[in-house]
From TrEMBL:
It comes from the Bacteria. SUPFAM superfamilies: 4Fe-4S ferredoxins, Pyruvate-ferredoxin oxidoreductase, PFOR, domain III. It holds the Pfam family Fer4_7. Residues 247-276, 285-315 form the 4Fe-4S ferredoxin-type domain. The lineage of its organism: Bacteria, Bacillati, Bacillota, Bacilli, Bacillales. Keywords: Iron, Iron-sulfur, Metal-binding, Oxidoreductase. PANTHER family: PYRUVATE SYNTHASE SUBUNIT PORC (PTHR43366). The keyword Oxidoreductase applies. This is 2-oxoacid:acceptor oxidoreductase family protein.
Length: 337
């Protein structure tokens, strides 16, 4: 008898992880597949798709499970999953994360917000919504959100053995980072315990969320003559908030000596400057603040600052979605707790 709770027409139980580069969804997908294959003897496969950037771009990780008697001959991205895991709410802005979710499927979101708000932003019509505050757990345990998300995913995929993933966590960390084994097991256990569920009834005659594949606006019929790109490429609208791991730099203007050491080390040109005339009538550049839209939370600027003008503070989960809360300046987006 199969231990899988449900299967599609090809005999697969499928999971899709929606994430942002840097949050560890690729590793979480690998560990999930390993726990099913090595721990339970299922057949399984896992692969990820991501852009060329190391951090900040959307990432998808796909996991397929089937009984040991079934061969896996499908290697395409998963379009109609039974379970979706959303690692960061900033993704809603650019990716239709719930696309293709089966009508009896479960979508897990890393969020500190209430069910109905998350449902509204996901545009979820039916199915089960699961929420875990993976960022809060990761910050508290000094680990990463992917392990807390794994805990919640194991609670959802209750045919998987949690003990199997504890062994995978041990194997993954004990060689290079033995000091992280215990903290990661605690993070996994908290994700498993703290995930909460709400089921939204499926109206009669409702089918699953239709899968939509993002299409390029330029094709053979619409491209310009010679295939010339007429718009300049830039990253002005990009929001790097999804790369942050729960901490951001806080700027204190009073302590700043305008030395620009922070700007020199910042990889994403987050520092906003303005011209001012000093007491001697000389024009100087003064630091106005940090544009959190581009800040990936690497905290290099804090190490570089020779005064206490920059310090580390904990970020309030979910603000990147609203992204309108200003700190010191109207044009500087982002917010702090
Ligand atoms: S933490 Fe500092 S150095 Fe890193 S991206 Fe943000 S502003 Fe730039
Ligand atoms: S490194 Fe510190 S003191 Fe220097 S400009 Fe940046 S915030 Fe101001």
């Amino acid at each position: 008898m199969s231990i899988l709770p449900t299967k599609n027409e090809l005999g697969f139980y499928e999971i899709r992880l929606e994430s942002i580069g840097g949050l560890g969804a690729n590793l979480a997908g690998k560990m999930l597949a390993e726990a099913g294959v090595l721990g339970l003897g299922l057949n399984g496969s896992n692969f990820s798709s991501y852009g060329s950037e190391k951090k900040g771009s959307p990432v998808k990780s796909f996991i397929r499970f089937c009984d040991a008697t079934t061969d896996i001959r499908a290697h395409s991205p998963i379009e109609e999953p039974h379970v979706i895991g959303v690692f960061h709410e900033a993704l809603y802005k650019t990716v239709n994360v719930s696309s293709g979710l089966k009508s009896d499927g479960i979508i897990l979101v890393n969020s500190a917000r209430v069910f109905d708000e998350v449902k509204r932003d996901l545009n979820l019509q039916h199915g089960t919504l699961a929420i875990v505050d993976a960022l809060k757990i990761a910050v508290k345990e000094k680990t990463r959100v992917n392990t807390a998300m794994l805990g919640a995913l194991f609670r959802i995929c209750d045919f998987l053995d949690p003990e199997a993933i504890r062994n995978v966590i041990k194997r993954t960390f004990e060689k290079k980072y033995p000091q992280l084994v215990e903290a990661n097991i605690r993070t996994f256990d908290r994700g498993y315990e703290e995930v909460v569920f709400k089921k939204y009834e499926t109206p009669q005659d409702t089918h699953q969320n239709t899968f939509s594949r993002p299409l390029s606006s330029l094709g053979f019929a619409t491209q310009t003559i010679g295939g010339v790109l007429t718009t300049q490429g830039n990253s002005m609208e990009k929001d790097l908030g999804g790369s942050r791991q729960g901490y951001i730099p806080k700027f204190d203007k009073e302590s700043c000596i305008n030395c620009a050491s922070c700007d020199t080390v910042c990889p994403d040109l987050c520092f906003v400057w303005d011209k001012r005339v000093n007491k001697r009538g000389k024009q100087i550049m003064t630091l106005q603040g940090i544009d959190y839209q581009y800040c990936k939370g690497c905290l290099k600027c804090i190490e570089a600052c020779p005064t206490s003008a920059l310090s580390t503070i904990q970020e309030k989960q979910g603000f990147t979605h609203d992204n309108k809360v200003s700190q010191n300046f109207p044009y500087i987006s982002g917010g702090i707790s």
